[in-house]
Amino acid sequence: MNTTPDDPIATARRALACLDLTRLNGDDTEADIERLCQRAGSRFGPVAAVCVWPRLAGFARRQLPASIRVAAVANFPEGDADPERALRDIAAIAEAGAQEVDVVLPWRALLAGDTAACARVLAAARRASTGLTLKVILESGELRAPERIAEASRLALAEGADFLKTSTGKTPTGATPEAARVMLEAIAADRASRAGFKASGGVRTVADAASYLALVAETLGEAACTPARFRIGASGLLDDIEAVLGGSATLSAGAGY
C-alpha cells in the first residue's frame, strides 16, 4: 500500500489501523473512556488499541470488542527509577485484562549515567509483562542527543522491549522524525529482535503520520507498516483521519515533513 502524500486515502487507512487512540488526562472518568471506546470503532474501521490509565483499563476492556486491544501506561509519566512503581502499575494492568503495557524508561537516571537503574526497571517490567506487549517510552525529547536516544534504544531492546516509543506526550517535545530515525536504526541493527516502533507526542495529522510511515518503510521495510510493528499514539489524529477518509480534508503539501 502506498503511504506517500499523493495517496492520502491509503495513508489515512493505514494510520487508522496502526492508531493507539489515547486518553491520559489526570481527571479521566469512565464516561470519558466510554466515549473514547465508542470512537475507537470508527465508521471507517477500528483502531489498533486504546491507551488509558491502569485504573481505567478494565473498564475500557469491557467496552471494546476483542479485536481492539487495550494498552495502559506504567511508571507514567515521570519515569521513576523505582521498579516497584512499575510493578504495581503492571500488576493492575494485567489484572484488568489489558494486552499492552506502555512503560516509561527512567530517562533522568539515564541522563545521570545510571544505566543500571534503567536496566532494573525495564527487566522488572519485562518479567511482570509476560504474555503482554511491552512498549518502552524513551522520552526522546528530553534525552535530546542522538547518542542518548540510541543508548536508551539499545537498553530497552536488550531488556526485551516489543516496541520503542518516543514520548509520553507530557513534555514539551514529543515525537520527531530525527529521534524516530535513531530509534528505528537501533531496531534494524538488533538482529535478535523483531521490535516495533511507536510515534507518540504531537502526531496530529495524516501528513504527520505519513512521515513516520515512510521512515518505518525505509528502515524496517514496507512489511513493518502494520500494527504488529508500527503504532501511532495520539488523541486528535483520528479527527484528521476521518476528515481525509470522509472527503472533507486532504494532506497539505509538505505538511508533517
Short key terms for the protein model shown above:
single chain, 257 residues, alpha/beta, TIM Barrel, eight-stranded parallel β-barrel, two-stranded antiparallel ribbon, 16% strand, globular
Explain what you see:
The protein is of the alpha/beta class and 257 residues long. The chain has a single domain, classed as TIM Barrel, CATH 3.20.20. It has eleven helices and ten strands. The chain has helices spanning 8-17, 30-40, 57-63, 83-96, 107-111, 115-128, 140-143, 146-158, 177-189, 206-220, 237-245, and strands at 19-22, 41-42, 45-46, 49-52, 69-74, 100-104, 133-137, 163-165, 196-200, 230-234. It has an eight-stranded parallel barrel, surrounded by eight helices. Strands 2-3 form a two-stranded antiparallel sheet. α10 links the parallel β9 (196-200) and β10 (230-234). Residues 252-257 have low confidence and may be disordered.
